[in-house]
Amino acid sequence: MVQKRALISVSNKKGIVEFATGLSELGYEVISTGGTKRALEEAGIPVTGVSDITGFPEILDGRVKTLNPKIHGGLLAKLDDPTHMLQLEEHGIEPIAVVCVNLYPFKETISRQEASVEEAIENIDIGGPSMLRAAAKNHQDVAVVTDPLDYEEVLRQLKEAGKVDGETKRRLAAKVFRHTAAYDAMIATYLTELAGEEFPECLTVTYELKDRLRYGENPHQHAAFYKKPIEEGGSIAGAIQLHGKELSYNNINDANAALQLVREFSEPAAIAVKHMNPCGVGTGETALDAFLQAYEADSVSIFGGIVAFNREVDVRTAEKLHEIFLEIIIAPSFSEEALAVLQKKKNLRLLTVSHRGEKITGRNLVSVEGGLLVQDPDLYSFEDATITVPTKRQPTEEEWNALKLGWKVVKHVKSNAIVLANGHRTVGVGAGQMNRIGAAKIAIEQAGEQAAGAAMASDAFFPMDDTVEAAARAGITAIIQPGGSIRDEDSIKKADEFGIAMVFTGVRHFKH
Ligand SMILES: NC(=O)c1ncn([C@@H]2O[C@H](COP(=O)(O)O)[C@@H](O)[C@H]2O)c1NC=O
């Protein structure tokens, strides 16, 4: 019997001995590169070295091992093409029926903070992707495996049918091209960043499947959650779920919004979110104080919402949280007693996010029909802004605290956005209105009596003085807004008329 050939060259050696044993027992001649050959021989599997086939040693520190016509001819020949077969014979090349290759660990290398550029470059696999792509192109005749999870199925089919069926070979080939494309995308991103190119001529991003979701924004929409290959600390994609039902599409979006806002605060803070807008934000000496403030901010909307903390949730906070219906609680950690309290609710999702204090710096990508919008995230903070006070009256210390809180929150509310706040919590949130005065009216109505003495934050400038007038009539005493309207003077005059202290930040925080 003519022996069939299987080529195995893997960096990740997991499961390879079992796979190679299976192939060998089925009569395959296993051919391998240096390290793989050694590992298989140690396990007692007969192996032919690739160098014995190519008649060429591995050179340049392994940069050239399998890049040889004796290998690539065997991968690319069409078995039903007489000319191909004749040429193989002429050049003494044997066809290869099974290819098992996984690549140098480029992702793992660049994930290590201390990895040098030289190390990263050495971990760019060249021969591996070449073999994978060749075999995948020729999948009509070659079964190509790159994922150890596929070893079992390939062996099963070879054992039961003596071959891998066409459908499986096509599926494996598609997987290979996804894998090599993702691999190259990571390399391209790494080198593009090193070269400092901001918006290259094409965008090669890659994401890995994290979860299939039960449905999307609505039950009739199919959905999945993909994550970046290398995790960014503090992101929802890196969150660990300790308890509760699986996260839904809307949960993930809301949790993301809550996390982005809680990161604005260094003092203990609690953020309640509904439909991606903060409905109550509180700060205090402790997580409990902060939560009580957030709850007080809007004890109606928080129902069925998400609460994010930037401090550990302790048992006292957990007991308070337990009293209301929430979908998700996110915190850096939960004390054991707190967990015991919160886990009484079967469905309540508890997430921890390992925020190590770094800013999330990756670009924002938003899909529109037929394209993708790409921009930097809005990382501008109050401390970065050039603050001016154009009114006669300067804010008092208490007003400054309220203005800062309102300004941090309004950045995370859908535009047009108005937030009313005191020094400890929001008291009114007007989100996503088509005109500014509309957003102001909603915030003022929600605040009711609490508007008196509160501060107002606006995500963009006032095109006219009507919002200042509405604020004054509600008893608001301080306003923070970007400024920059051609009619700023009208707003300043109106503020002076009512003794309001108004602050300009010079920075707009639209959010759509
Ligand atoms: N250059 C080549 O000809 C080449 N051929 C195979 N490789 C890679 O070498 C690795 C296996 O090496 P080893 O069997 O020596 O442990 C695999 O990840 C494979 O993708 C190569 N490496 C790199 O580019």
From TrEMBL:
SMART domains: AICARFT_IMPCHas, MGS. Pathway: Purine metabolism; IMP biosynthesis via de novo pathway; 5-formamido-1-(5-phospho-D-ribosyl)imidazole-4-carboxamide from 5-amino-1-(5-phospho-D-ribosyl)imidazole-4-carboxamide (10-formyl THF route): step 1/1; Purine metabolism; IMP biosynthesis via de novo pathway; IMP from 5-formamido-1-(5-phospho-D-ribosyl)imidazole-4-carboxamide: step 1/1. Its EC number is 2.1.2.3, 3.5.4.10. It comes from the Bacteria. One of its GO terms (biological process) is 'de novo' IMP biosynthetic process. This is Bifunctional purine biosynthesis protein PurH. One of its GO terms (molecular function) is phosphoribosylaminoimidazolecarboxamide formyltransferase activity. InterPro entries: AICAR_Tfase_dup_dom_sf, Cytidine_deaminase-like, MGS-like_dom, MGS-like_dom_sf, PurH-like. The IMP cyclohydrolase activity resides in the N-terminal region. One of its GO terms (cellular component) is cytosol. The keyword Signal does not apply. The gene is purH. It catalyses: IMP + H2O = 5-formamido-1-(5-phospho-D-ribosyl)imidazole-4-carboxamide; (6R)-10-formyltetrahydrofolate + 5-amino-1-(5-phospho-beta-D-ribosyl)imidazole-4-carboxamide = 5-formamido-1-(5-phospho-D-ribosyl)imidazole-4-carboxamide + (6S)-5,6,7,8-tetrahydrofolate. PROSITE patterns: MGS. Belongs to the PurH family. Signal peptide: none annotated. The keyword Zinc does not apply. Residues 1-146 form the MGS-like domain. PANTHER family: BIFUNCTIONAL PURINE BIOSYNTHESIS PROTEIN ATIC, BIFUNCTIONAL PURINE BIOSYNTHESIS PROTEIN PURH. Pfam families: AICARFT_IMPCHas (PF01808), MGS (PF02142). Keywords: Hydrolase, Multifunctional enzyme, Purine biosynthesis, Transferase.
